[in-house]
Amino acid sequence: MSASVPLRAALADALTEDGTLADPEWRRAAATVPRHLFVGSYFEQVPGSVPTRYRPVHQGDAGWLRGVYTDRTLITQLDGRTRPDDVARGTAVVGSPSSSSTLPSLVLRMWQRLDVQPGQRVLEIGTGTGYSTALGAHCLGDDSLTSVEYDPVVGAAAASAIKAAGYAPRLITGDGLRGDPGGGAYDRLIATCSVRYIPVPWLHQVKPGGKLLVTLSGWSYASGLALLTVTGPGAAAGRFLTGYTSFMPARPHDRPPRPALVLLPGEERPTGMDPAIIGTWTGSWVAQLAAPSAERMGAGSEQILWDVSTGSQSRTASRADGGWTVVQRGPVRLWDQVETAVQTWQGLGAPHQEDFGITVSAARQRVWIGAEDGPGWDLPI
Ligand SMILES: C[S@@+](CC[C@H](N)C(=O)[O-])C[C@H]1O[C@@H](n2cnc3c(N)ncnc32)[C@H](O)[C@@H]1O
Predict the structure, then answer these.
(1) Euclidean distance between CA atoms 274 and 316, whole angstroms
(2) What is the mean pLDDT of residues 289-316?
(3) For residue 135, which atom of ligand 1 is closest to its CA?
(4) Is residue 343 in a domain?
């Protein structure tokens, strides 16, 4: 018996016990699909490194197989090019994760939440290693599933792994933000990369009544997982879900390259809001909605917002008397926008994203709190 079989069974048992695998079909998929065929070598973070450094765990290294069958995301590419096998054992590198095998519990929760019915057609965006694609093909059948991967090297590796595991869904290499280049009447769309807004082609390729499960994110890397129903061609509405889901951004939606930060002088004023709130999970989400073209840096009460396109900056600091100040410069008063939004959210009891919803039309994509006519912010479409 292969050494992976008991490890795979133990992972499926653990995910059943913790309530992740409520559906026996998906439990069978988790117990059957051999994740090690998809992951190969992977990167591990060097604990405590700033900026984060990654060291490779090569296929066959001690602990490699056990690592594959733990419930964690395994990074398989940095900066759109560096693979673990490109890095020598004992060396650590800095980079930005650009492909991975998402943690099994999240992938399996998402597949179950998508609520696919027999015979329905599904479009997956972000094949990555192909592990989630194989789980989908196992449960839904090859003919139901099409998966799109942006990176040709990643896509080719996934195609080999999917074939080696015995599955044959339709695979496409290209920009999944354009959907299926052949067009398509899909019943479901599942994205395992995040987007700043819902790409218009998705709203035309999923049939009215069909569903999209997608993580909305932005240039401050705050995020929320939303389930939307298509309400007509080019239109959809939905709610954000419970939990803390993040995915790497779809490559065309990632923030643009920027020069090193130089903080410049500006207008100073006191602020009555502890800036640390925008370092929390939902606080950072609200700040990103209010200032979508800004990148957030800093920590605690020392928060920096920088909108490279307009040169606008804001930076907060603690005062000796326990209060805070903000310095702002540029045409967009970033902190003013964020402060107003966060105060609105706090005035509603500072709910988690599960109290937020989204309405999408050809002209506008709006995220709101509570109800569609409640306070909200337009996404940068
Ligand atoms: C988190 S990984 C996917 C994980 C994968 N589903 C798995 O289980 O292994 C995200 C993937 O999305 C891909 N990606 C990024 N932008 C994309 C786009 N515009 N279209 C299709 N794929 C994209 C990345 O190259 C990366 O491989």
Answers:
(1) 9
(2) 96
(3) 8
(4) yes
If asked whether residues 194 and 231 sit together in one domain, one would say yes
Q: To test ligand 1's pocket by mutation, which of 79, 145, 149 has the most ligand atoms within 8 angstroms of CB?
A: 149
371 Cα to the center of ligand 1, angstroms:
32
Please compute the mean of the pLDDT values over residues 109-136 and round it to a whole number. Answer: 97
E-assigned strands of 71-168? Answer: 74-78, 93-94, 97-101, 122-125, 145-149
For ligand 1, residues with CB inside 6 Å are 98-102, 107, 125-126, 128-129, 131-132, 148-151, 154, 175-177, 192-193, 247-248, 250-252
Shared domain check, 122 and 82? no
List the one residue out of 36, 28, 26, 29 whose CA is nearest residue 3: 36
Q: How far apart are CA 267 and CA 330, in angstroms?
A: 10
Taking residues 35-39, report their average pLDDT. 97
Q: Return the ligand 1 atom nearest residue 128 CA.
A: 27
Pair 224, 133 in one domain: yes
- Which ligand 1 atom sits closest to the C-alpha of 77? 27
pLDDT in tens, 148-186: 999 999 999 999 999 999 999 999 999 999 999 998 899
Residue minimizing CA distance to atom 12 of ligand 1: 126
- Confidence (pTM): 0.97
CB 211, CB 230: distance < 8 Å: yes
pLDDT at residue 355, as a whole number: 98
